[in-house]
Structure formats: structure tokens, C-alpha cells
Amino acid sequence: QVQLVESGGGLVQAGGSLRLSCAASGRIIRLNVMGWYRQAPGKQRELVATITSGGRTNYADSVKGRFTISRDNGKNTVYVQTNDVKPEDTAVYYCNANIFGYNAQDRLNWRSYWGQGTQVTVSS
């Protein structure tokens, strides 16, 4: 069964950095767009950044110039390097990926998968 597992969250001071990782595993045939989203308490989940299999990136205005998304296609892994973090970056960060693979019913299909989330807390 396909799954996404995130790591790298934690507590960081304002102005500091964190690197989040998300590895996709399971019976994967192809990975398309991968990305990071975040959800702060009392707010809706929002886009942070996405990256295509060819390396094309897209960022939310709030993180442009501070966050960098990248991926290792050989490892089915996506990263986001967060620099100069601010208290407003505090949220649960979720990994997302569009994957062509075998699902829990052993059927081959395209599906959007989510990780379990990793907490990032920025102290002022």
C-alpha cells in the first residue's frame, strides 16, 4: 500500500531553519506533482509549495524567498528547506503527492495521497 511519511518537524526560534522530508513508499509506478501544505490552528489547510517531476516549482507568496522545495526522484522523496522562519509559519505541515500505484484494494490507479503531518513550531 502506498504511503507518505514525513519527518523533520520540531521547535525552532524565529529566524532559524528546518528541513522537512517526505518519503513515498509502496507499490509505486509513477510520481507526479509532490508538495507541502500547512494548517495552523483555527485555519484552513493552505499551499506551501509544489514541485513537478520535472522540477518546476510553485510557492505561496508568504514563503517565497524563504522556503525551497526540492525532490529526489530516485528516492521518491520531497523536501522543503525552511529558512528565516517566522512565528506565523507555525503549523502542522503535510506532504502531498499524486501517485500512480497499487492501492489498498490492489488496484492500479492515480490518487492523491497525504502524509500524517509534522508539527513545526516557531518561537519568537
Q: Any overview of this molecule?
A:
It is a single chain. Helices cover 0% and strands 60% of the residues. It has 124 residues and is mainly β. Strand 7 and strand 8 form a beta hairpin. The chain is elongated.
Summarize the structure.
The protein is mainly β.
Number of helices: 0
Largest sheet properties = 7 strands, mixed
Give the low-pLDDT segments: none
Radius of gyration: 14 Å
Backbone structural class = mainly beta
Please give a handful of descriptors for the protein shown.
four-stranded antiparallel beta sheet; about 0% helix; about 120 residues; mainly beta; 11 strands; about 60% strand; single chain; seven-stranded mixed beta sheet
Describe the secondary-structure layout.
Layout (H helix, E strand, L loop, with lengths): L2 E5 L2 E4 L4 E8 L2 E12 L6 E6 L5 E3 L7 E6 L4 E6 L8 E12 L5 E7 L3 E6 L1
Parallel strand pairs: 2-11
Antiparallel strand pairs: 1-3, 3-8, 4-5, 4-9, 5-6, 7-8, 9-10, 9-11
